[in-house]
Write a structure and sequence with these properties.
Strands 1, 2, 3, 7, 8, 9, 10, 20 and 21 form a nine-stranded mixed β-sheet that branches. Strands 11, 13, 14, 15, 16, 17 and 18 form a seven-stranded mixed β-sheet that branches. Strands 4-6-5 form a three-stranded antiparallel β-sheet. The N terminus is likely disordered. It is α/β, with parallel strands linked by helices and 475 residues long. 54% of the residues are buried.
Length: 475
């Protein structure tokens, strides 16, 4: 059947799928979205012996996961224990809660902190994903080393390995399939979906349970203006598939929505190269200065809230400034190496040369760099009480021009600890699940609540939990 072009998802109410749905057009669990959340859920369903199908709008599964750093925080994994790191789900939950100032959903904080370690171990043991714990520095808000990465240390590398695992497990994935319709019966049970193919054909697939693993609404300019007005003019560095479909469906169904003011920004997006510059540079002693050559915030508070601080500076651009030891660390990250190859990194032999690159007054920049020597020397600096530098930056200096960007949203459908979508009355829908960017996360309702890695935490832990719930429903 051919449908006219559609621009918005819709809810269709019926007791049966339209027309005569063939037996091979039914699958126990349908997963909408082929990012890290959807692929993790599919792999876990495979392990549970439950058939599923993933519907992905792109020709190749990437999503926001591929655009991320690919770093996943997790406590108590095999590789973390082997590295001698003392950690626990309770300690991780405490870090999440502290970063969000107590405003993250407690039931999800506990559920995700408990599930993420077993999820990474399962992906390693049963599907061959290789993890390593990042060493040498801590991301903002984390009390111990718990950031896991694949050997590539990129989101694209993570997605490539998940896609390879899907192929090895022979799990069906339909690409170039944009889900336009959710079919619901009178009992609010999902009976299937309708998805559009590139030629405009609309196909239907019946199911016993549905997992919404599509992402948030960062790519929907109207929703951003409505729900995140402070980022209405920010560059969107996420995936175009973040079109707010899950929120649109939720509103149509009368589902609860939560934490819609939460999002992950980033204050270190290289311009004009369009590349993410790791915040590890800031944590290891780098600074951000504006067009006047002045620091304007405490860089160690977090890269998400830094996006707002950066955008508030003249022209909405600033400079990351660091020195040779930090450059050596930066070059261990492939994203940085690519940005450097593209000309993002400026070499400056002196403060005067650095001032010329930035275009600021030399005296301002000299005063800024001189204030970084020790806590006592910083007593007159307005950010001194927040950050103590272990050593001064030393010439030669390196600088990268960056802006603040919106990466992905952290609010969405309200869910319980089993990832079941909640209705307006607080009761779960019978067989509708959501995780990852489609659901509320664990960052609370503001940009400063985002703990490094919360996005992939929600994706992988949420996919793991949703798969277990869906398996029970399908049985």
């Amino acid at each position: 059947m051919t449908a006219p072009p559609m621009t918005a998802p819709r809810i269709c109410q019926a007791e049966h799928m339209p027309g005569t749905v063939a037996q091979d057009a039914h699958v126990p669990v349908v997963i909408v979205g082929g990012g890290a959340c959807g692929l993790t859920a599919a792999l876990m369903l495979h392990d549970a012996g439950v058939d599923c199908a993933v519907l992905e709008r792109d020709a190749t599964p990437t999503g926001s996961s591929a655009l991320s750093s690919g770093f996943i925080p997790a406590p108590g994994t095999q590789v973390q224990r082997a590295a001698g790191v003392d950690d626990s789900p309770d300690r991780f939950a405490a870090d999440i809660t502290a970063k969000a100032k107590g405003r993250a959903a407690p039931h999800l904080v506990q559920a995700y902190a408990q599930a993420i370690g077993p999820a990474l171990d399962a992906l390693q043991q049963r599907h061959g994903l290789q993890w390593q714990v990042l060493d040498g520095f801590l991301y903002p808000g984390h009390s111990v080393r718990r950031m896991h990465a694949t050997p590539e240390k990129t989101g694209a590398g993570l997605m490539g390995r998940l896609a390879n695992a899907m192929a090895a497990a022979d799990i069906p994935m339909v690409t170039d399939a944009t889900v336009r319709e959710l079919w619901i019966n009178a009992g609010h049970r999902v009976i299937g979906v309708g998805y559009e193919r590139p030629d405009g054909t609309l196909e239907h697939l019946a199911c016993d349970a549905l997992i919404l693993a599509c992402n948030g609404f960062g790519g929907n300019a109207a929703m951003v203006r409505e729900l995140l007005p402070e980022m209405r003019n920010a560059l969107f560095a996420g995936h175009t598939g973040n079109d707010g479909s899950a929120i649109a469906w939720g509103r149509a169904l009368g589902a609860r929505l939560a934490d819609l003011g939460g999002y992950q920004g980033h204050g270190s997006w290289a311009v004009p190269q369009g590349a993410l510059i790791s915040w590890a540079l800031m944590m290891e002693g780098g600074i951000q200065v504006n067009a006047l050559g002045e620091r304007f915030h405490d860089e160690t508070q977090g890269y998400s809230e830094a996006s707002v601080h950066v955008l508030a500076q003249p022209g909405g651009v600033v400079w990351n400034v660091f020195d040779a030891p930090i450059l050596a660390l930066a070059r261990t990250f492939p994203d940085f190496a690519d940005a450097e190859a593209a000309g993002a990194v400026k070499h400056c032999d002196s403060v005067q040369a650095l001032a010329a690159v930035i275009g600021c007054d030399e005296s301002n920049l000299i005063a800024t760099t001189a204030s970084l020597t020790s806590a006592s020397d910083q007593k007159d600096h307005k950010f001194a009480e927040n950050r103590v530098f272990q050593r001064p930056l030393q010439a030669p200096f390196y600088a990268v021009k960056v802006t603040g960007a919106l990466f992905h949203t952290q609010g969405g459908l309200d869910i319980d600890a089993q990832c079941r979508v909640l209705g307006g009355d607080g009761e779960p829908f019978p067989n509708l699940l959501a995780a990852g960017g489609a659901a509320r996360g664990v960052s609370g309702n503001a940009v400063w609540g985002y703990l490094s890695g919360n996005g992939l935490l929600s994706a992988v832990a949420g996919g793991y939990i949703a798969a277990h719930t869906a398996a029970q429903l399908a049985r």
